[in-house]
Design goal:
about 100 residues, single chain, mainly alpha, elongated
Length: about 100
């Protein structure tokens, strides 16, 4: 039978692995959203990667804790997320009100 201390360490390692996997999955998700922005607007190609690289350098130079650096990195991926909401309407209809889909 495992000793309580050994079982506790095993649970802690498993938990740390799960947390790491969640962080990696989330980072992949926010990266995909950032890249989706670039697909909509060709002029911004590479912008997300440049902002993230700059953010990494600044937060490291400031000596911020790894968890804070990760949060700021995620913010860098998502800083233009509002651009995904832009309506794709025909320019000729720009002044026309949208119809309700009731």
């Amino acid at each position: 039978m495992p000793r309580p201390k050994d079982a506790s360490r095993s649970i802690e390692r498993a938990h740390a692995g799960c947390v790491r996997e969640i962080h990696e999955t989330f980072e992949g998700t926010v990266l995909a959203l950032g890249r989706a922005l670039e697909l909509r607007d060709y002029e911004t190609r590479g912008h997300t990667d440049r902002v993230v690289a700059w953010t990494d350098r600044v937060t490291e130079r400031l000596g911020l804790d790894r968890s804070v650096r990760r949060a700021v990195r995620w913010g860098a991926y998502l800083h233009d997320i509002g651009k995904l909401r832009r309506c794709r309407r025909d320019p000729a209809q720009a002044g026309a009100p949208e119809r309700s889909r009731a």
